[in-house]
Amino acid sequence: MFVVDLMHEFELGVWKSTFIHILRVLNASAPGGKLLAELNLQFCKTPTFGTDTIWRFSNNVSQMKKLAARDFEDLLQDIIPAVDGLLHEPHNSMILTLVYRLAEWHALAKLRIHTKHTLACLEKSTTAIELAHRIIKRLYARTNKINAAKYIAKQERRQTCLRQAREASKAHQLRKHSHHVGFSENDTLPYTDVDLHHHISNSMRYGHNLFSFIRDPPNDPSKKDFIPKLKTHLLGRLLNLDFDGDEAIFTNEERNSICILEDRIYSSKILRVNYTTYDMRRGQDTMNPCTHCDVMVLSRETGPKVHPFWYAHVLGVFHARVLHTGPQSQSHSIQHMEFLWVRWFGIEPGYAYGPSKARLPKVGFVPEDDPNAFGFLDPSLVLRGCHLVPAFTNGRTSDLLTTQAPSAAQPPNETDDWTNFFVIM
After folding, report:
1. Per residue in 368-404, pLDDT tens?
2. Are 136 and 85 within one domain?
3. Among residues 62, 92, 109, which one ends one of the domains?
4. Structure pTM?
5. Using CA atoms in the order 97, 102, 103, 108, what is the torsion angle rounded to 10 degrees?
6. pLDDT of residue 49
7. Residue that finishes a domain, picked among 58, 88, 109
8. Calculated CA dihedral for residues 18, 23, 24, 28, nearest 10 degrees
9. Are 347 and 388 in contact (CB under 8 A)?
């Protein structure tokens, strides 16, 4: 009996050959390698996901230089958004169906319901040791072989200083919103107990006055009714109301029973969520509003053809000290409450997707004129992070927000949005 070798037989075999054939089709369909250049550009725009799930693609994917099996696996997972729309019909649909079925088979082939903890620990430790050994051998070759330890230590410190300087320079160049905790800023988040659903730093170092916050930047549509919506969200949680997507309706008097101490909310750098993977292991996702900031929650809709999940873009991770007064109050003590400020996605209407159609789900931001386009979310409802890749063929639009001025709903250097996103499954 032969053991199935997915890496050599599929990732470096079937899928690599298929990918090469797709590149040949694209090269033959347009003169001068125009479509190949477009494919490379769209792979470069593909966002990363997780710490080691999807890495940043190289500038020239079509040349396939120095690609390992893991790189081909990443290409398979993210090729649908990159290749969609490059060819005319019916060839575009044929390519999309082909790569969807390949990705589907690959995912099912790697689905395991058991773990091998000891082998995983051995592999992890062996890999770390061997990588460290390679560094020493490389540095040793640069010495005069006399008193090598001293010169290796000097080289290591020199490399560390250069790396820290590069990181500091890069962090200084990155722009951020006022409520984001920058990469270079320290917001310590200690070890997260895997039995807890999520973990957010309780540091009060990065505080914001509510009334100053909603005016920066001025006339920001994402901050419309920010304080009433926040109090409605907090009151619903304190009254143990079930979350159904639409915030409960309260009177002004009921909302005023929520007191946010000192009118201050506090930013956190990241949100960590623990979850169970499909192969029954414990996994952890880290969401940072500056980078990986898309999450998924269970849908509260009912019906035979309803999508099982809702998706949201996290604009900020906050916590506050809250006091609930009045006749409905269940506790008169100060409570520490965590909440996410989000921009909701909606399923693209009229778009057919799923295994029977061999198409990935497609979502888009809810337009600003919808009262539920922006809102707040209890972190305990987050299932995990999700990998949303722009549908490059649909382009960008400025119709979702009425303003062309800077907004907290968009990255600091952008004034428009991608029209749609594919949900990478």
Report:
1. 999 889 999 999 999 999 999 999 999 999 899 887 7
2. no
3. 109
4. 0.77
5. 130
6. 87
7. 109
8. 140
9. no
